[in-house]
Write the structure tokens for this entry.
Amino acid sequence: MEKIKGYIGTYTKGDSKGIYSFTLDLQVPQIQDVKVAAYIENPTYLTIDRTNKYLYSVAKKGETGGIAVYTIDDISGDLQLLDSQLEEGPNPCHVSVDSQNNYVVNANYHKGTVQLMGFNNNNEKILSTLSTVKHEGSGPNKDRQEKPHVHYSGFTPDEKFIVVIDLGIDKLITYEVNDEKLNEVNSLSLQPGSGPRHLEFHPNGQFAYLMTELSSQVITLAYDRENGSFTEVQHTLTIPENFTENNQGSAIHVSSDGKFVYVSNRGHNSIASFSVDESGHLTLIDFTPTEGAWPRDFVLDPTEKFLVVSNQESCNLTLFARNTTTGTLARIQSDIAVPYPVCVKFLNT
């Protein structure tokens, strides 16, 4: 494996046209061949199924929003639109798919909803909405928590449950699917005003790590696989204690060996790296500047020897080499121009 294909979701303002593709040359190493892969409005979050057959994107068209499904050419990596399901109102901000491509869930920040979607024809991937749940409530931050703002929805490792994070009401809610309907089975109220945003599980399935946007913290959670409940274990600040300017936590990812957790800080414009001990607790390694403004998301490549950051407001990607033993990052390339990049995903290997 010398080259790996990746895709970038963007805000379609300025020069942005939609979803972009690129190649990571592992030998050089360098990101190359950035180009438009699909013309679509505001594809701000993407996910790729485990077989690399389909790419799912949030989508907007005029006053409607929803999900679009693309086929991925197994040789060229080109995208071909299969189907889109759009409805009145703002587009979602997050999308996930289960391992069998049976269910798609999306989180809608502006509507405060989580939506379960399925397929009328699974072979042709024709989407239909199965169940929608609208959250209620508010939080103490009057500017950001005036109502529910669902920011993440994803499957637990065994796919028994769907975990949903609501920034607006400071809650993590667990659902299960019964008769193709979302049913709440557990709920965890988090620190008021923390603004939970994204979550990723430890590979052992016993822990999960939740990134807060408003308080810039990682919350380490113990996970009960039987009933889908979570218990708070540790709170860890993701920025230096003396940093007093505006910061908003964004993405969080865990290395596949479970030894390291990485998070992105918008404002401090850094990746914070943490080591993980046997009890799931985090210890800060260091802060690495992202060489750009407002790092919205980042991704580990399939070899996990590299990490790619999308700097939204400076319109560039930054490529880092990752030391798989120490977890530290070293900048390789930061001049990769992409208009308003938000989400970065690689094909699975």
